[in-house]
Write a structure and sequence with these properties.
Order of helices and strands: HHHHHHEEEEE
CATH class: Alpha Beta
Radius of gyration: 25 Å
CATH superfamily: NTF2-like, domain 1
CATH architecture: Roll
Structural class: alpha+beta
Low-confidence stretches: none
Shape: elongated
Number of helices: 6
Length: about 190
């Protein structure tokens, strides 16, 4: 078999490269067009609402707080309908300990949540990110017949061009099903 040399070989190589790049471009854009036609793009709020906590509950205190932070970002950063807000509120309450839920009526909880979100947004704050304690920094202990965990979560905030952060300490209690539930949280010292 004779090798392609000179101009003829270079021309064939260029044609092959163009064909491969063109095919890749066609395939990648076809998938995007198909997604847009089917309307399969979902918002961050819808993505959070689709998570089934009955079948896929976060296994560790760190994962529970991480999911709490994701929902919090949706509350304070995203656009949503009234129905989606109520869905987010119900979803975050699935992470709460029963005693925390019983501390307020559902109506009071939703009113307070809406007021908090409105104040946050009117102050021009945005949650740009968060980070939780590393797994080795989660402090676990037993007290009053329950397993408890304490960990920190830092929320990174932006107001205009000013960036700041706030650190909160979370206390979680393991329930009868072995799920870690948020018992409460407060600003860290």
């Amino acid at each position: 078999m004779k090798r392609f040399k000179g101009m003829q070989g270079m021309l064939i190589l260029i044609v092959l490269v163009c064909a491969v790049v063109g095919f890749y471009y066609y395939i990648s854009n076809r998938a995007k067009v198909k997604e847009e036609e089917e309307g399969t793009t979902i918002t961050k709020v819808q993505e959070v609402l689709l998570k089934n906590l009955e079948r896929n509950y976060p296994p560790t205190p760190k994962e529970v707080v991480r999911y709490f932070a994701e929902i919090s970002q949706c509350f304070y950063n995203e656009k949503y309908t009234e129905e989606e807000l109520e869905g987010l509120a119900a979803k975050i309450q699935e992470l709460y300990d029963d005693e925390l839920i019983e501390a307020k009526s559902q109506e009071t909880y939703l009113t307070d949540l809406k007021d908090d979100i409105e104040k946050f947004k009117s102050d021009g704050l945005v949650i740009t990110g968060y980070s939780t304690s590393s797994s080795t920094d989660v402090f676990t202990f037993s007290e009053d017949g329950y397993d408890w965990a304490r960990l920190y979560c830092t929320f990174y905030l932006r107001k205009g061009k000013t960036k700041t952060n706030t650190q909160e300490v979370f206390i979680l209690r393991k329930d009868e099903e072995g799920h870690w539930k948020i018992y409460g949280w407060d600003l860290a010292d």
